[in-house]
């Protein structure tokens, strides 16, 4: 079985693999590309794979990671100060949050939805890719890559 052992920026991907947020944080897992080919994700350490990451396979090919649509809730906020305040409340609960222009996206959770409603906000349910912030101490976060290009 082919193995994906690291991320790359040097190989043009010939396939894609679509995974939800939970499946994108792995070290070792048997996967099937969207085109039907099986391979083994076999990274040296567990990591959060992001939308657009490219996995290098041991046969010289590459697979692009896609974020699968999943159930999410979104809170729209017009004011930057309000966005920061709500992000702080969610971060204080260690909740994975995706920050988008003028809104926050998170997994559905009735406790968090009640908290947000109590703060006067409206939560809207959607199906969308969920790609939350990886955190300040993560080895791979937005805007910084720890692999060669």
TrEMBL record:
InterPro entries: UreE, UreE_C_dom, UreE_N, UreE_N_sf. Keywords: Chaperone, Cytoplasm, Nickel. It holds the Pfam family UreE_N. SMART domains: UreE_N (SM00988). Residues 1-63 form the UreE urease accessory N-terminal domain. Transmembrane segments: none annotated. It is found in: Cytoplasm. GO terms for biological process: protein folding; protein-containing complex assembly; urea metabolic process. GO terms for molecular function: nickel cation binding; unfolded protein binding. GO terms for cellular component: cytoplasm. Its main location: cytoplasm. Involved in urease metallocenter assembly. Binds nickel. Probably functions as a nickel donor during metallocenter assembly. HAMAP family: UreE (MF_00822). Belongs to the UreE family. This is Urease accessory protein UreE. It comes from Arboricoccus pini.
């Amino acid at each position: 079985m082919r193995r994906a052992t690291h991320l790359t920026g040097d190989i043009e991907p010939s396939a894609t693999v679509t995974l939800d947020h939970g499946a994108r944080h792995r070290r070792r897992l048997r996967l099937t590309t969207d085109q039907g080919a099986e391979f083994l994700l076999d990274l040296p350490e567990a990591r959060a794979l992001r939308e657009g990451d490219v996995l290098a396979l041991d046969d010289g090919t590459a697979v692009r990671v896609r974020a699968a649509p999943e159930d999410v809730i979104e809170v729209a906020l017009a004011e930057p100060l309000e966005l920061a305040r709500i992000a702080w409340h969610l971060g204080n609960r260690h909740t994975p949050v995706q920050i988008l222009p003028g809104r926050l996206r998170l997994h559905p959770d009735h406790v968090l939805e009640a908290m947000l409603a109590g703060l006067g906000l409206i939560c809207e349910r959607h199906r969308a890719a969920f790609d939350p912030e990886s955190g300040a101490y993560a080895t791979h976060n937005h805007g910084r890559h720890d692999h060669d290009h």
